[in-house]
Design a protein that fits this description.
alpha/beta, 33% helix, two-stranded antiparallel sheet, 387 residues
């Protein structure tokens, strides 16, 4: 399926400036995009004025087949695309979920100083704290192949920690690949961490004790937060809190991709050697073999170094999408760099699993690194019942 023309916005310098302001209405945004593309200012777009990878959509947008795209044609297509996108968001489960007893929710807090609904976070606080000390924070980042998912699902994961009165919880939204390519996703996540630190005093949070937890694509992003806290070129410039850093204390990574270059060669139900419509290709802007430099930068293993956050990685041995070898690779890379790392084998587990034993080990990990509670965390394999 051809990409909607509204993705043209991703390749234009003007959109970076627009993203820092209140987003205009779809028609106005489309008109601005048209003006940016119309380099010779003749009031129409030729195929040559389009970025090469979007020229395949030209005839579809050229409704009257006159060999050029008028502003009216351009605006009409982009407006319809935005309407379809908005309708899809209403159906993707992104509506606020009921808040469990004992939790106070503050939702849709803008962390990047924009009105973009994807650049917002939900903050969950216990109504009854154990004491008056600043609370450590567990930040959840959702999965969905970087192209789907929503921050609303994070509540299910952090709720038990918040209800204990010992933690605050945060669930972070980020721009998906239909809106922006790498490194937008990690820039968003880092801006969210900086926002938490900058606002820690207001909510009585401990800015020095932040753990991050993610699944699948979210596992990749939290792994990246854990290894690239000292990589300045990946910080981005989003938000008002650039005086803060994006380093985190610890990482819980559930089956996240860790090295895009090695994953291409590993057995999977996803053919990553060709095509441009699989998740990593959509994230990177092209097939991994054709985007090696970007793929390397986007791989958490690339940035692992002494002093990184402590890791707990859980991965299924029969994961059909992200091979178990990815968990082994990040674990070995971190150990070699002198970073505390635990690898939890989920025997017979696929791309997703549940286990009360795993839940307890995750709690021990967070308690150890965020609350200083001593623990000898066992990582013997956990058998997952086949579905």
């Amino acid at each position: 399926m051809n990409k909607p023309l509204f993705l043209l916005a991703l390749s234009l310098p003007v959109t970076a400036a627009i993203a820092q302001q209140t987003p205009p209405a779809p028609a106005e945004r489309a008109a601005r995009m048209f003006e940016a593309l119309d380099t010779n200012k003749d009031g129409k777009l030729s195929k040559e004025e389009m970025p090469e990878r979007f020229r395949e959509n030209f005839s579809r947008v050229d409704a009257n087949s006159d060999g050029s795209i008028s502003k009216e044609e351009h605006v009409a297509v982009l407006t319809r695309s935005q309407q379809r996108q908005d309708q899809a968001k209403k159906k993707d489960g992104s509506q606020p979920r009921p808040v469990p007893e004992g939790i106070e929710a503050q939702r849709d807090l803008a962390y990047a100083d924009t009105d973009n609904p994807r650049q917002k976070l939900d903050l969950y606080l216990p109504k009854a704290r154990k004491d008056n000390k600043p609370l450590p924070v567990i930040v959840f980042i959702h999965g969905g192949g970087w192209k789907a998912g929503d921050k609303s699902g994070g509540l299910n994961n952090v709720a038990r920690f918040v209800q204990s009165g010992e933690y605050a919880g945060v669930s972070v939204g980020y721009r998906l690949t239909d809106e922006a390519k790498w490194p937008a996703q990690i820039h968003d996540c880092k801006a969210a961490i900086r926002w938490i630190k900058a606002n820690a005093k207001e909510y009585n949070l401990d800015a020095s004790k932040i753990g991050v937890w993610g699944t699948s694509a979210g596992g990749h992003l939290v792994s990246h937060l854990g290894t690239s806290g000292d990589v300045k070129q990946l910080e981005g410039t989003l938000g008002k809190h650039l005086d803060q850093n994006s380093s985190v204390t610890c990482v819980v990574n559930f089956f996240g991709p860790e090295n895009f270059l090695s994953m291409v060669r590993q057995p999977s139900t996803v053919d990553r050697t060709k095509g441009k419509d699989y998740p990593e290709a959509l994230l990177l802007g092209g097939a991994v073999p054709d985007r090696e430099a970007v793929a390397k930068e986007a791989s958490p293993v690339t940035h692992a170094s002494k002093g990184d956050a402590a890791f707990f990685t859980a991965h299924g041995t029969k994961d059909p999408l992200v091979p178990y070898a990815q968990g082994e690779e990040i674990h070995a890379t971190l150990q070699k760099a002198g970073v505390p790392s635990l690898l939890q084998e989920m025997t017979n587990g696929g791309h997703g699993f549940r286990s009360p034993i795993l839940d307890e080990r995750v709690k021990q990990f967070f308690d150890l690194h965020l609350r200083g509670i001593p623990a000898e965390i066992v990582t013997s394999p956990i058998m997952v019942e086949g579905k």
